[in-house]
Design goal:
heterodimer; A: 390 residues; alpha/beta; Rossmann fold; 2 domains; five-stranded mixed β-sheet; two-stranded parallel sheet; 49% helix; 10% strand; elongated; B: 93 residues; alpha+beta; Alpha-Beta Plaits; two-stranded antiparallel ribbon; 3 helices
Chain lengths: 390, 93
C-alpha cells in the first residue's frame, strides 16, 4: 500500500456520496483516526507506492514526501485513462504532500486528486521544494472539477484546515492553478481560513518560471491554448465513449440492410450491412479523430460544420473508390450518413475543448441536430429504397 | 487562441461598470484575455472569446460581473435536455 514510513492523509472514500463532511470533522484538523480506519472500497486502487518517498516532519506532524520521477506504472496508468480504462478510479489520497525538502517558507501548490494531474505537478516540480495540497475532486482534473465546484472554495478551506497548514508554513499564501478559478472565490478563501489565493499559471510546466518571477505570471502563462498534441491525446476517449452506441447502431444497420425485394435476406444483411457499418466507422473516425486534429484549419466555427466537412470529404473519397460496386441511391445514402455521423460526433468534441461556451454549444445544437437527424433519415430511406431498384 | 474562435454573439457575460473597482482579478483569472483594466475600471475587450467558465464572476469582489456559467459540452447539454435536469458532464480527461 505505502512504503510503510507513514500513511498519507487518507480521506473518506471519495466515491461514496455524502463523504464530504462525513466522519471527518474539518475543524478538528485530525485526519487519521476515523477517516484512515475505513478500508478503501474494492474499486479503489492505491498508487501511493509509485510516488511516495518517505516523509517530512512538521510541527503539524509527519507529511508524506513525493518524488518527481514518472515511472512505467505512471506511464501505463496515463495511457489507460486516455483510453477510458479505470479513469474514474485514477486518484490519489487528498491532503498535504511534500515535494523536495520544503520548509516553513516554501510555496504551497494546490491541485486536484486526479492522478494524471498530480503526476504532471510533481514532474513539473522537479527540483522545487514545495508543499502540494491535494483537494478531493473525486478524481477529476482541475478545470472540470472547478466547473462542477468540487475544486472549490469550501474544499480549499477544508483541506487547509485539515492539514493544519497554518502550523506547517509561516506564510499565508496558496498558489492555485488559474483554471481552478471558476470554482474558487479567492476573497472567500481568505475569509474562511486566513490564506490568500494567488492564481498561478494555467500550465504546471510554467510553475517554476512563475515562482522565479516572484509569483508573477506572464500574459502567455495566463492563456489557454489547444495545440495539436493536446487535441490528439483526447481522441481515444472520444472513440471509446462511442463504442456502445456504435455497437447498437451497427446491429441496427445490419438489420436494415437485410430488407429488400425478398422482404429479408440474410445475405444482403451481411453484404450491404458490412458496407453500412464501414461507413459508420469511417464517420466516427472523421468526427472523433480527423476533426479534432484538423480543428483550427477546418472552415466554420460550429463543430457540426467542421465535422460535416471532414465526414463529407472522406465519404466522397470512399464513394469514388467504391463507385464500381455502388448504385447511385446507396452511394448517396452512405455519403449523407457519413456526413451526419461525423457532424454529430464532432459536435461532442466541444466538451473536450477549452474555448466553447455553453451558450454557443446550445445554439449550435438547436440548429445542427434537426439537420443531422434529417440527413440520417434520408440516408436510411435511400439505403432501403436502393435495395429495391437494384 | 488564434484559430480557435467559437460561435460569437451568444456569451452571457455582463459587466456593471458602476460596481467595478478595478481590482484586476477578472483580468488575472480569465484564460482568454476577455478583460483589460484601464484607469481603475475593467473593460470587456473581447466578449466573443468568452467561454462562460465563470472564473471572473466567481472572483469579483463587488459582484460587478455576471455570467451564466456552464459546461460547453454537447453531450452534457443533450443529457440535460433528455433528462430535463441541469447539464452535467462526466469529463475526467
Amino acid at each position: 500500500m505505502t512504503d510503510g514510513k507513514g500513511d498519507p492523509p487518507v480521506a473518506p472514500d471519495p466515491s461514496s456520496p455524502g463523504a464530504a463532511g462525513g466522519c471527518c470533522d474539518p475543524t478538528s484538523g485530525k485526519t487519521v483516526p476515523c477517516c484512515g480506519g475505513g478500508s478503501p472500497s474494492k474499486a479503489e486502487i492505491r498508487y501511493e507506492d509509485t510516488f511516495l518517498d518517505g516523509q517530512v516532519d512538521t510541527p503539524a506532524g509527519p507529511v508524506p514526501r513525493v518524488h518527481s520521477r514518472i515511472g512505467s506504472r505512471d506511464l501505463l496508468g496515463r495511457w489507460k485513462v486516455r483510453w477510458g480504462i479505470g479513469r474514474d478510479r485514477y486518484r490519489v489520497a487528498p491532503g498535504l504532500y511534500a515535494l523536495g525538502a520544503p520548509d516553513g517558507n516554501a510555496p504551497v501548490l494546490v491541485t486536484a486528486n486526479y492522478k494524471l494531474t498530480f503526476d504532471v505537478v510533481r514532474r513539473d516540480g522537479t527540483g522545487l521544494d514545495a508543499w502540494i495540497l491535494v483537494l478531493d475532486t473525486r478524481g477529476i482534473n482541475v478545470w472540470c472539477a472547478a466547473g462542477e465546484g468540487t475544486f472549490g472554495t469550501e474544499e480549499v478551506i477544508r483541506r487547509v484546515t485539515e492539514a493544519r497548514l497554518a502550523e506547517v508554513v509561516s506564510h499565508r499564501r496558496l498558489i492555485l492553478p488559474q483554471l481552478g478559478a471558476p470554482g474558487v472565490a479567492a476573497h472567500e478563501v481568505r475569509k474562511g481560513c486566513g490564506f490568500s489565493v494567488v492564481y498561478g499559471p494555467v500550465r504546471s510546466r510554467d510553475i517554476r518560471s512563475f515562482l522565479d518571477a516572484g509569483m508573477k505570471a506572464s500574459p502567455a502563462m495566463r492563456r489557454v491554448d489547444f495545440p495539436t498534441i493536446d487535441r490528439l491525446v483526447l481522441t481515444p476517449i472520444e472513440i471509446t465513449g462511442l463504442l456502445r452506441p456504435a455497437g447498437w447502431a451497427a446491429a441496427g444497420l445490419f438489420l436494415l440492410s437485410g430488407f429488400g425485394p425478398g422482404i429479408f435476406s440474410l445475405g444482403a444483411a451481411w453484404e450491404r450491412g458490412f458496407a453500412a457499418v464501414a461507413a459508420l466507422a469511417a464517420g466516427i473516425l472523421a468526427g472523433a479523430v480527423v476533426t479534432p486534429v484538423l480543428l483550427p484549419w477546418l472552415p466554420g466555427r460550429a463543430f457540426s460544420v467542421k465535422g460535416a466537412l471532414a465526414g463529407g470529404v472522406l465519404a466522397a473519397c470512399a464513394v469514388m473508390w467504391q463507385r464500381g460496386s455502388l448504385e447511385a441511391p446507396a452511394a448517396l445514402a452512405l455519403l449523407l450518413a457519413m456526413t451526419a455521423v461525423s457532424s454529430f460526433v464532432a459536435m461532442n468534441f466541444t466538451g473536450a475543448t477549452p474555448f466553447t461556451s455553453p451558450s454557443g454549444v446550445e445554439k449550435e445544437m438547436r440548429r445542427a441536430l434537426p439537420v443531422q437527424a434529417g440527413l440520417t433519415v434520408l440516408a436510411g430511406l435511400l439505403w432501403v429504397g436502393g435495395a429495391f431498384i437494384r | 487562441m488564434d484559430g480557435f474562435r467559437y460561435i460569437g454573439g451568444v456569451a452571457t457575460l455582463r459587466l456593471d461598470d458602476a460596481a467595478c473597482i478595478g481590482c484586476g482579478m477578472c483580468e488575472e483569472v480569465c484564460p482568454h484575455g476577455v478583460f483589460a483594466v484601464e484607469e481603475r475600471k475593467a473593460r470587456i475587450l473581447d466578449r466573443d472569446a468568452c467561454m462562460e467558465c465563470g472564473a471572473c464572476a466567481m472572483n469579483c469582489l463587488t459582484g460587478a460581473i455576471s455570467v451564466t456559467p456552464g459546461v460547453g459540452c454537447a453531450a452534457a447539454i443533450l443529457n440535460g435536455w433528455l433528462s430535463g435536469s441541469k447539464s452535467s458532464c462526466g469529463c475526467g480527461g
